[in-house]
Amino acid sequence: MIRAFSLALDAPLPTANGTIDHRSGFLFERDGGVGEATPLPGWTESREDCGAALREADAADDWDAALAACEGSPAARHAVSLARLDAESRARGITLAARLADDPAGSVPVNATVGDAGVEATVEAVENALDAGFETVKVKVGARSLADDLERMRAASDATDATLRADANGAWSREQAREAFDALAGLGVEYVEQPLAADDLTGHRGLGDGVGVALDEATTNHALDDVLAVADCVVLKPMALGGVDRARDAALAAREAGVEPVVTTTIDAAVARTAAVHLAAGVPEISACGLATADLLAEDVADDPAPVESGRIRVPDAPGHGVEVSVDA
Ligand SMILES: [Mg+2]
């Protein structure tokens, strides 16, 4: 069965592909398992293509045929593969985390995200995150001049003991990135996410000296191995990768290559967001993940079984992903 949903965001969010004010997707249910597809153009197929793939999967005779119908449609495949893993886990009475990994952690650390703002507002937001128990804070940069962004990062670093990350979303030139990395190394910044444009993969090589290079958008238009060859950290979005199973494979490949994986959402609803928590719990000693995104939504498809508490999310211990869909989506 397929159910469509559309959820309003708490506030409009500017992205590289325009401002979004809601997230629309589908819940896919089969054999007692529930999966979610929340496509995000730029990262996944369109909503239209996603719906078409899911209808084909829904009509398929078995799970293998249903998954095959979603090949090339990562959000649709995310939904079907998750429904299958959820159904299997529930049937065995184990959590999704235990289905994915041996000995998963009971909780995962998550980072707070501070958007573009002036110096004072940035410092205040970082302090609020620390007060709420977050130990890692990611600051969005790249929307204003480099000098202004460096001043924001300097002020945030002076004001707090948090581990700081920056996310430039590909906004910088190679020259700007070199200048930024020099300055940020002195501040103890852990890493900069996507400093250069996604297609300038080689420009990232050798950039990180004291500050790590994390690649996010680059994962959409380069093979994983090529990304792992230049990155210190890779940002994995299960919705864009075609499922938590494929994201797990990517996380293990990253570790194998000496690259730290971080799991984030594409501002997904409760089913996919919680599945990503289970995934992260199965990666030993994972660093703070971008899974504190529930508050970006004004409404959801279920009560949140995995809220953020003091900078961590506890993995639900009910069988499967542990999300009980509560709305007639
Ligand atoms: Mg990013």
What topology emerges from the helices and strands here?
Blueprint: E1 2-15, E2 18-30, E3 33-37, H1 47-59, H2 63-68, H3 74-92, H4 96-100, E4 107-109, E5 112-114, H5 119-131, E6 136-140, H6 146-159, E7 163-167, H7 174-185, E8 191-193, E9 212-215, H8 224-230, E10 233-236, H9 238-241, H10 244-256, E11 260-263, H11 270-281, E12 308-309, E13 312-314
Parallel strand pairs: 5-6, 6-7, 7-8, 8-9, 9-10, 10-11
Antiparallel strand pairs: 1-2, 2-3, 4-13, 12-13
Helix pairs in contact: 1-3, 5-6, 6-7, 10-11
Magnesium ion is lined by residues 167, 169, 193-194, 216, 235.
Q: Give the number of DSSP strands.
A: 13
Q: What's the tally of helices?
A: 11
Question: Number of domains in the coordinates?
Answer: 2
Oligomer: single chain
Strand order of the largest sheet: 5-6-7-8-9-10-11
At CATH level 3, the topology of the largest domain is TIM Barrel
Encode the helix/strand succession as letters: EEEHHHHEEHEHEHEEHEHHEHEE
Percent of residues in helices: 25-40%
Task: State the major sheet.
Answer: 7 strands, parallel
Task: Return the CATH class of the largest domain.
Answer: Alpha Beta
Regions with little confidence, pLDDT below 50 for 5+ residues: none
CATH superfamily of the largest domain: Enolase-like C-terminal domain
Average pLDDT reading: 95
Bound compounds: magnesium ion
Rounded to the nearest angstrom, the radius of gyration is 19 Å
